[in-house]
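Ops channel
N.P.: pipeline sanity check, posting one input/output pair.
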C-alpha cells in the first residue's frame, strides 16, 4: 500500500495473498483503507474494483467480517445472474451464422445491443432495430455499439479518427508488429480493418476490454473480457494464456501496449494491473532484464505525478488526444478548453514525431516534439508547459507555472489569483493531491462508502403523541399572547 502524507482512501497492496479476495460481478474486489496523515484509520474493507458508484455495484465487506455460508451462496448466485446471456464461444457461433444471412435479414437491436438471428426477431418487437447491417459496419463495431459513458468504470470515450490514425502511424513508424490494446477498441478495430480489409499494414492486435459486447464481433484470439482495475480475465485460464502467448510471441519482441483507462479510475489499481501484464511479458525468458515492455498510457496531464510514482521512467508527450463523444476533450480548442489528455510513455520522446501540420515543432535542446506555445525555459532548461499554453517562470517558486497564476506571499507559492489562502495547501481533502478539489476526486465515492460503513445506524426515538399535542397547544397560546402584546 502506498504511504506518505496523503489523506483519504488507498488501495491496500500488502494484504495476505493466500486469502482470496471476495468477488463481485466484476471479479475479485480490492481491499481499501482510510488514510489520515499517512496512517491507517478505521477498518479495512473490500469494494468493487471497477465501480466507484454504489448504484453500479453495491458490494461492501469488512476485511475481518465473517460471512455465512448462506450469504456466500446468495452472493455466488447474484454474481452468476449478472454475467452475459451468451458465452464468448456462443457469440462466435452466432456471428458465423449471422454473416451468412442475406443483407436484408441482418438486424441489430439498438436497445439490447445485440446482433439478431431470424428466430430472435419476435422477442425484440417494439425495440429500435437497425436493419441491413453491412460487412463494413461489422468491421467497425465501435460505431455500431452505443458507447458506455460511466466515466468511473467503463467510459468509452472513443478516439477521433485523427487520434486513432496518429497512434497507428506511430506504432508502424516505430516498427512494432503486435499491439496489446487495453481499453482501446477503436484502435483495435482500425488495426484489424487496415490489416485484413484494406491490407495497408501487417500488424496483429489483441483487445482487452471490460465491455463484453465486443465478443459478438471478435474471436477468443482477438478479444479477452478483462478488468484492468484488478487484472482479471473473466474467461479464466484460457483467456490468460491467450494474452500471455500474444505478449511472449517472438520472445517478447516487437510488441507494444496501448492503454486508455477511464479517467475516474484509481491510478494505483491501474498501475498494479499494468505491472502484472509486464510480468506476463517478461516470463518468456528471452527478454533482456534491462529491456522494458513499451507502453503508451493515455491519461489527463494532471495525473502525471501520480503515474510517475509507479513508473518513474515515463515521460509525457505534448500530443493532445481527443475523443468523438466527449464534449470537452477536443483538439483545436484554445486555452483551458483544449483537451487535457496526453500520452505518457517509456518510449524515448526523441523517437516520436508529432504532426507539424497540427502545430507541433521540434525543440533541438530538449530533443523532442512539443506544442507550438510550449517555449523552452532557459532557467528550467526544459519545455515546461503541460496544458499547451505558454508557461511563465517564477523565480520565487524556482519553476514555471501556468500563465494565469500569480505568486502568493501568504501561501509562498503560485496559485490562481482568486484562490483561498487557507485552503490552497490542503488541495483535495480526500487524497491530498493539490491539482484538484474534493468534488472532482476520483476516490470520493470510495471514501463516502467507507464513511457510511463506519457510521452506526440511527435508532428512531419513540415519540409520545400526547406530548406533541401538549407542546403544540402551548406554542399556539404563546403566539396568541405575542399578538396581543403587539396591539
Amino acid at each position: 500500500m502506498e504511504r506518505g502524507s496523503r489523506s483519504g482512501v488507498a488501495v491496500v497492496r500488502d494484504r495476505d495473498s493466500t486469502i482470496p479476495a471476495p468477488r463481485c460481478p466484476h471479479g475479485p474486489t480490492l481491499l481499501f483503507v482510510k488514510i489520515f496523515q499517512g496512517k491507517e484509520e478505521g477498518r479495512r474493507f473490500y469494494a468493487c474494483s471497477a465501480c466507484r458508484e454504489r448504484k453500479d455495484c453495491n458490494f461492501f465487506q469488512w476485511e475481518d467480517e465473517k460471512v455465512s455460508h448462506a450469504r456466500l451462496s446468495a452472493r455466488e448466485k447474484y454474481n452468476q445472474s449478472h454475467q452475459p446471456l451468451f458465452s464468448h464461444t456462443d457469440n462466435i457461433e452466432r456471428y458465423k451464422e449471422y454473416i451468412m444471412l442475406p443483407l436484408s435479414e441482418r438486424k441489430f437491436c439498438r436497445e439490447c445491443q445485440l446482433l439478431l438471428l431470424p428466430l430472435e426477431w419476435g422477442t425484440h418487437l417494439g425495440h429500435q432495430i437497425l436493419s441491413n447491417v453491412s460487412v463494413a459496419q461489422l468491421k467497425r463495431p465501435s460505431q455500431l455499439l452505443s458507447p458506455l459513458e460511466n466515466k468511473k468504470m467503463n467510459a468509452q470515450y472513443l478516439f477521433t479518427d485523427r487520434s486513432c490514425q496518429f497512434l497507428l502511424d506511430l506504432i508502424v513508424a516505430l516498427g512494432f508488429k503486435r499491439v496489446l490494446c487495453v481499453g482501446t477498441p477503436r484502435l483495435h478495430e482500425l488495426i484489424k480493418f487496415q490489416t485484413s480489409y484494406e491490407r495497408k499494414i501487417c500488424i496483429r492486435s489483441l483487445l482487452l476490454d471490460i465491455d463484453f459486447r465486443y465478443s459478438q464481433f471478435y474471436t477468443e484470439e482477438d478479444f479477452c473480457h478483462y478488468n484492468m482495475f484488478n487484472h482479471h480475465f473473466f474467461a479464466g485460464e484460457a483467456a490468460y494464456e491467450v494474452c500471455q502467448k500474444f505478449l511472449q510471441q517472438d520472445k517478447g519482441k516487437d510488441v507494444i501496449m496501448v492503454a486508455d483507462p477511464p479517467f475516474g479510475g484509481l491510478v494505483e489499481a491501474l498501475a498494479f494491473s499494468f505491472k502484472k501484464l509486464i510480468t506476463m511479458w517478461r516470463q518468456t525468458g528471452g527478454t533482456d532484464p534491462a529491456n522494458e515492455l513499451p507502453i503508451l498510457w493515455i491519461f489527463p496531464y494532471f495525473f502525471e505525478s501520480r503515474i510517475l510514482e509507479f513508473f518513474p521512467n515515463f515521460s509525457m508527450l505534448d500530443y493532445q488526444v481527443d475523443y468523438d463523444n466527449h464534449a470537452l476533450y477536443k483538439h483545436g480548442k484554445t486555452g483551458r478548453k483544449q483537451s487535457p489528455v496526453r500520452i505518457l510513455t517509456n518510449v524515448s520522446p526523441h523517437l516520436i514525431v508529432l504532426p507539424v501540420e497540427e502545430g507541433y515543432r521540434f525543440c533541438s535542446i530538449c530533443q523532442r516534439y512539443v506544442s507550438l506555445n510550449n517555449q523552452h525555459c532557459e532557467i528550467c532548461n526544459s519545455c515546461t508547459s503541460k496544458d499547451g499554453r505558454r508557461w511563465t517562470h517564477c523565480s520565487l517558486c524556482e519553476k514555471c507555472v501556468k500563465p494565469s497564476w500569480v505568486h502568493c506571499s501568504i501561501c509562498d507559492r503560485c496559485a490562481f489569483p482568486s484562490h483561498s489562502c487557507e485552503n490552497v495547501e490542503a488541495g483535495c481533502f480526500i487524497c491530498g493531491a493539490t491539482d484538484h478539489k474534493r468534488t472532482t476526486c476520483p476516490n470520493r465515492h470510495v471514501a463516502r462508502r467507507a464513511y457510511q460503513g463506519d457510521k452506526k445506524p440511527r435508532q428512531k426515538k419513540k415519540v409520545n403523541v400526547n406530548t406533541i399535542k401538549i407542546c403544540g397547544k402551548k406554542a399556539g397560546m404563546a403566539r396568541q399572547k405575542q399578538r396581543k402584546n403587539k396591539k
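N.P.: looks fine end to end. The chain has a mean pLDDT of 84.
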